[in-house]
Structure formats: C-alpha cells, structure tokens
Design goal:
heterodimer, A: 183 residues, alpha/beta, Rossmann fold, five-stranded parallel β-sheet, three-stranded antiparallel β-sheet, globular, B: 307 residues, four-stranded parallel β-sheet
Chain lengths: 183, 307
C-alpha cells in the first residue's frame, strides 16, 4: 500500500471555505436552497459545508439532509451480497427547491445517477447541482459533471481516494491509496 | 452483510444476526413506506410468484404490496382456480411456473414442510408464507419487530401466546423468534390445545389466563383454528371465550398496562372483544403496517444473494 496525501490541514479547510463562497455566489441567503449529503461519506461533507455557511451567514436558515441511495443502485444482484442501507434523514420537502447534492468523491458517476432517482421520492426540485470535494477526472461511466469541485485528481481504477474528517476520523485529509503489487 | 440462508423456510433456519439484519433493513423500508412516493427500484429485474394453496387476505396482500414497492414483477396464483384441482403435483405446478422464468416463489400451503420439500426440488428461492401448522416466519418477524418498536428491544420482554397453540404456525415461529432474541415466552390455553412437549422449546405453560396476563408485557391472542380441528377440543366456543377470551374488564383489572397483539384474522367476541382490539393498548394495525416493511426486507435480502 502506498499513500499519497493530496490535501490536509489548513489547505483542506481553505478548500471547504472556497466551496462555501462559490455556493453563496449562486444561492445568496439559501432561502430556496437545500443541501443534501449522499450516504455514507457525503454526509460529513454536507455537515461541514452547512456549518461553515452558518458561520458566514448567521442570519440564514441552512437546511441540510442525508440521502441513502442503497435501494436505487444499479448493481443490485450483481454483487456477492446485498448492501446494508444507511439512514435517510430529510425532514423537509424539496419540491420547487434548488438542491445541492454533495459527495466526497466523484468517480464513476453511478452514485449520482442513483441519488437523482432516490431524490425524486421527496419531490421535484427546481434545479439540482452537484458539489464534489474530490473529482477523479476521466473515469466517468456515465455523463455526470460536478458544478463545484474541491480538487481534481488523475487516478487509475485500482487506486482509491479516501477522505477523512476531523469530526469522525480525527483529522481532515484526502489520501490517494495505491495497491502495490507483490513481486 | 447477507442472510445465512438462501430461502426463508422457517425461523428455525435463522440465527440472531439474520433476524437483526432483517430488522435493520426493515427500519429503512419503513421510512420508505412513510414517504409520499413509496416505491424503490431495487428488485426491478426480479420476478416473484405468489402461490397460495390456502386462503389468505393479509399475508397475500402484504407480500404483493412489498413486492410491488420493491418494483418486482409479480404473478399471483390461487390453487382453487388452477390446474391443481385437475390433479397436478406440487413440483409440476411450480416447475411450470418457473419455466416462465420466475426467480422467487412465495408459497402458502396447508401441509407442514411443503416449502422445505419444494426448496429441495426447484431452483427458485422459496419464501414460506405459512405451511400447515408448522411455521409462518414472516409473521413471527413482524410480531417481534412490532414488540421491538413498542419497547425498544425484545430481549428480556415477557410474551404470552394465548389460544390454539396446537394448530398454530404463528405460535411455533413466534416462540423460535422470540427465544432467539432473548425474550421470555409463555403459552396459555386449554390443555387440549397445548402440545404435550411444548416445554422442550423452553417456554412456560399456564392454563389460567389472568395469571398469564399478570406475568406478561405483551399478550399475543391467537384465533381458534376451527378449520384445522378435526375433533372437538373444548365443549363450546362460548366456554372458550369465558375462560380464554380477553375483554376490557380483564385488561383494566391487570396490575400493569400490557400490549395486545393479534396476527389476524380476528374473531371479534371470541378470543378478543372489539373494545380491546380497538383500544390504545392494541398494536394490531401496527403489526399489519410493519408486515409490509418486514416482507420488503426479507425479499430484498434474499434477492440480493442471487447473482
């Protein structure tokens, strides 16, 4: 295993803050906008972004929810065993709202396709945008693009991008993990 | 995570981890069922046949709804209107249905072990929706799930099953499921309707209804299964009601507030009076609601194994 740290410490925080300010440019006071983190790892990003936005815009009401996509995946029955779902926690209606979906890593794009299906159970949004902390370029299986990107990474399929969060893992860090072949 | 079994033939085949996995999955499906759009696309390439050789309202509807909410293709089959009455065997009937490319079979049958027999002879995954007086696994799961929902946990709870234990598949599955989850179980009824060796399952036996109710947290009132009784097991239904029927007066006279369950169909005025069935201590309709979520979880977890 070879690990390459792509982003950590203060730079990580600066990236989050830049994403927040880009969001404010397009969504003003967030009165018609909701933030949705995709389970399991996108929820930490959504929580962090929501917390930062609340600091920058203390007057506004930032709505944020967690969306689980397990039942909407396209690889059901194509894996060894069924995936155990996570909790969906969306206590607002997204009908007519602008939705910013968030996931930590954008890779094949299949998760985002499933998330768009899953979201329909909560109404018809006016507009959907995508925010990804890490964009693994040139690896899309379906035509999906993020509107807001933290960092872009060139990687190959056997590598993994792992995002750690201060709140749950003890530190903010994005690591590119490569499997080293044993001779 | 996956179930340890390819079919759901009885609670006997499930371990504690399986039951907990089903409950956790059902929690998620229950939130799906409370949304405006109650459907998920998980089983969109799965075809399920509901084969019912015995009458059913709740179970069949509940399975069918669960299948449809998972986006499965569903075919229904009732034995009374089929070639079974022309003398076709069970294996032939099911193999003919499977030749039409069906992945899973949900079956109810009047004979104990029919599902087990079928699982050994056909390729599809089998879900037992009740086989004779043997097992009714999804009913037991939804009963335990409802107790868990009411009290937060099943372990340590005292559950009494009252009525026709001898002819009841619900009783056997419930005992196995509740014991797996760490509950204490008692059966209560006339001596003739309690199987002789029931104690070997680790349950208490009580013939006095009031004593049983004062002991328990939850009372599961079973129907007298007259259709399975070939001889008279008690002098009259009226006498049964006097000794084992639950009415509001008994319920209010207990030393604590218990929860009342019933697997349905209810014979109002026999095992339970209307005012008890409709009281706020009764969770009979919650059981029905939970039934769909539990069946979705079972079908989802079983279908996910087959590649």
């Amino acid at each position: 295993m070879q690990n390459l740290t792509l982003l950590d410490g203060q730079k990580f925080q600066i990236t989050i803050q830049r994403l927040c300010r880009q969001l404010i440019e397009n969504h003003n006071d967030f009165s018609g906008t909701v933030l949705i983190g995709i389970q399991p790892r996108g929820i930490y990003l959504a929580k962090r972004v929501a917390d930062e936005l609340r600091k920058i815009l203390p007057e506004s009401n930032i709505q944020q929810g967690d969306l689980d996509i397990t039942f909407y995946r396209d690889d059901f029955r194509r894996q060894g065993s069924p995936l155990v779902p996570n909790q969906t926690k969306i206590d607002f209606i997204i009908e007519g709202k602008k939705v910013v979906m968030m996931d930590d890593v954008l890779w094949t794009g299949r998760t985002i396709r499933a998330a768009m299906d899953a979201m329909q159970a909560f109404g018809r949004p006016e507009k959907v945008e995508l925010l990804a902390l890490v964009d693994r370029r040139y690896s899309r299986h379906i035509p999906v693009a993020a509107d807001y990107v933290g960092i872009e990474v060139d990687s190959i399929a056997s590598q993994k991008v792992v995002v750690s969060w201060k709140e749950t893992d003890g530190e903010d860090r994005i690591v590119l993990v490569s499997e080293v072949k044993e001779e | 995570m996956a179930l340890s079994t390819r079919h759901l033939l009885g609670i006997k085949d499930l371990n504690k981890a399986d039951i907990e996995l089903i409950f956790e999955t059902a929690d998620n499906f229950k939130t799906v069922l409370n949304r405006p759009i109650k459907k998920v696309p998980s089983l969109r390439d799965v075809t399920i046949a509901n084969i019912f050789f015995e009458n059913s309202t709740r179970t069949r509807l509940s399975f069918e709804l669960a299948e449809k909410r998972l986006s499965a293709d569903v075919v229904n089959f009732a034995a009374s209107s089929s070639s079974v009455s022309k003398g076709e065997t069970l294996i032939d009937t099911v193999n003919n249905i499977l030749a039409m490319k069906v992945d899973m079979v949900v079956m109810r049958h009047p004979y104990a072990g029919a599902g087990i027999f079928l699982s050994k002879h056909v390729k599809a995954q089998i879900v037992n929706a009740g086989d004779g007086a043997h097992e009714h696994p999804t009913q037991a799961l939804l009963d335990a799930f409802s107790i868990r929902e009411r009290y937060g946990d099943v372990a340590g709870k005292k559950v009494v099953i009252v009525g026709d234990i001898l002819h009841s598949r619900v009783a056997l599955s419930n005992i196995l499921c509740l014991k797996q989850l760490g509950a204490e179980v008692m059966v209560c009824g006339p001596t003739t309707l309690i199987p002789k060796y029931i104690g070997s399952l680790g349950v208490k036996v009580e013939h006095n209804l009031i004593k049983a109710l004062n002991w328990c947290d939850v009372a599961n009132m079973l129907r007298i299964q007259l259709e399975r009784q070939d001889i008279k097991y008690f002098p009259s239904l009226r006498e049964y009601t006097m000794l084992y029927g639950l009415n509001k007066q008994i319920l209010d006279g207990l030393n604590k507030e218990i929860t009342v369950m019933h697997p349905g169909p209810i014979n109002r005025g026999v095992e339970i009076t209307s005012d008890v069935a409709d009281s706020k201590q009764s969770i009979i309709l919650d059981q029905v609601e939970n039934g769909v979520a539990i069946r979705m979880a079972v079908l989802y977890l079983l279908a996910g194994q087959a590649v």
